[in-house]
Write a structure and sequence with these properties.
- Helix content is 50%, strand content 8%.
- With 104 residues, the protein is mainly α.
- The protein has one domain: Winged helix-like DNA-binding domain superfamily/Winged helix DNA-binding domain (Arc Repressor Mutant, subunit A, Orthogonal Bundle).
- A two-stranded antiparallel sheet has the order 1-4. Strands 2-3 form a two-stranded antiparallel sheet.
- Strand 2 and strand 3 form a beta hairpin.
Length: 104
């Protein structure tokens, strides 16, 4: 799965579960996404730094090349993340219309 599909899947999950106190974030953990934990950490950190999610805690020790997440991981989608989802849904619908695949 490429990074953008993973980002979309994470954002879609967070959007569907926003405000749900019983939400189980393990559904977007690396095992569930079939990616290495190191990739997952960097994707989530990039998503937060880009403003698509918030609520992560991460740090980087002087002898580490990359930052690492602190647990528990409980991200929340931001308005920018919701806009990203909406724009990508519209782009997919437009592409489907061009291809002749009308879906609702």
């Amino acid at each position: 799965m490429n990074d953008f599909k993973i980002i979309y899947r994470i954002l879609r999950f967070l959007d569907r579960n926003k405000g749900d106190e019983t939400c189980d974030f393990r559904a977007i953990y690396p095992d569930a996404l079939y990616i290495p934990e190191s990739d997952w950490e960097q994707i989530l950190i990039s998503m937060q730094e880009s403003g698509y999610i918030q609520g992560l805690v991460y740090s980087q020790k002087i002898d580490e090349k990359f930052p690492h997440l602190g647990y528990p991981v409980n991200p929340r989608i931001t308005l920018k993340g919701m806009e990203y989802l909406a724009e990508n849904r519209l782009m997919k619908k437009a592409a489907d219309l061009v291809k002749g695949n009308v879906t609702r």
